[in-house]
Design a protein that fits this description.
Strand content: 15-25%
Largest sheet: 6 strands, mixed
Order of helices and strands: EHHEHEHHHEHEE
Distance between the termini: 30 Å
Helix content: 25-40%
Shape: globular
Structural class: alpha/beta
Number of helices: 7
């Protein structure tokens, strides 16, 4: 059995500007850095962490590093859990995406699990590689508790799969908030969600963000 303590990366520069991020390698804001420190404190005091993994994008790595420094455990980069490749949507605001790629964007807004970023990945493709990545991490760490820093789109597709929802109902899964904690057990080839998108530890640092893929 492996226990996975998964967080969506902390508040980033593009979360602040509401730009579609995808795989653009943006930094955390000052607020995001404070969230990362608060999350590291909470995780270190709540769990006995044996290993730390992160997407190889800067905003996820910056979320994992405070815990790494606190515990003296190196961060292992895992590209399979990086955010969706947004293709032509990256570096654009949502109204601009809607104007330029209206049909693709409307499908994303209404039935996200069936959507594809114009010129980029589909949510189905993201889900497949995210599941592969999480299974790899879990099986490499049997009997351990692992901290994983990843992204909103990744967590959305994973949670939908683990809740047994088909792609056509992915939009029913609420997006995880920045720096929230999702706890999952992997046992005998199956994932089970213990808790999802819990962010009470952030206190006054909590911020709502209604965008799925950041």
């Amino acid at each position: 059995m492996t226990r996975l303590i998964i967080t969506r990366h902390c508040y980033s520069e593009y979360n602040k500007t509401r730009m579609y991020t995808g795989q653009v390698d943006v930094a955390l804001t000052d607020l995001g850095l404070r969230q990362a420190a608060r999350t590291a404190e909470y995780v270190a005091e709540t769990y006995k962490i044996d290993a730390i993994y992160s997407s190889d994008l800067k905003r996820a790595m910056s979320t994992a590093i405070p815990l790494s420094e606190r515990l003296g455990i190196p961060v292992i980069k895992e590209p399979l859990i990086r955010e969706i490749y947004g293709g032509l949507w990256e570096n654009k605001l949502m109204p601009e995406i809607d104007k330029l790629y209206h049909d693709d964007y409307q499908l994303y807004k209404t039935t996200i699990g069936l959507a594809r970023c114009t010129g980029g990945e589909s949510l189905a493709e993201l889900q497949a590689r995210a599941l592969e990545g999480m299974k790899k991490i879990a099986e490499e760490n049997d009997g351990k508790t692992v901290f994983v820093a990843t992204h909103g789109g990744v967590l959305l597709t994973l949670a939908s799969a683990w809740m047994g929802l088909p792609l056509s109902k992915m939009h029913e899964t609420p997006p995880a908030t920045n720096s929230s904690i999702t706890e999952v057990i992997y046992d005998k080839g199956e994932f089970k969600i213990v808790k999802y998108s819990c962010d009470e530890h952030l206190g006054e640092l909590k911020i709502e963000n209604d965008m799925h893929l950041q």
